[in-house]
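# step 3/5: fold
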Amino acid sequence: MSIQTCLRCKGSCVHQIHGGVEIDQCSQCGGVWLDQGELEAILETSPNGNTPNSEISSGVHLNAGISNDARQDHLSCPFCSKTMNAMNFAYDSGVIINRCPNHGVWLDSGELKRIEDNRAFWRAEAAKRESEWKQHLHPSNPTSAETNQTLLDFFRSIFF
């Protein structure tokens, strides 16, 4: 699916290829519409092999780290006309995206690059700190196994 008109400034959208995925980008403000699954596809093909966690699909942490002003950003989905949810990509990236759970996401100018940079940073950080984190996740106390599994699941949801 593609859009013809920008959700933000009402400029015209043109088709671009980004990370092997055809996206709709506003020729005036630079905003981007990504159909369902396209953000994941772009991040999968990025040079660092960054794959997003399931937050985009599941919509968890929708309001985490979002200012009241950003929560008042009421963009409508170009396909179903429902108000899209503002969410902080990857929970604490600081990149606030607008998401329709059925059709896709709207990214303002520069946000796609910021998401890619955020994922690359945390992927590199995970590689640097893997052994340190494993020590915290596997202490010698067997009674903390449930806590360890919860922490491990948390780290996996953020970084992988």
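# step 4/5: annotate
The two ends are 28 Å apart (CA to CA).
# step 5/5: archive (pending)
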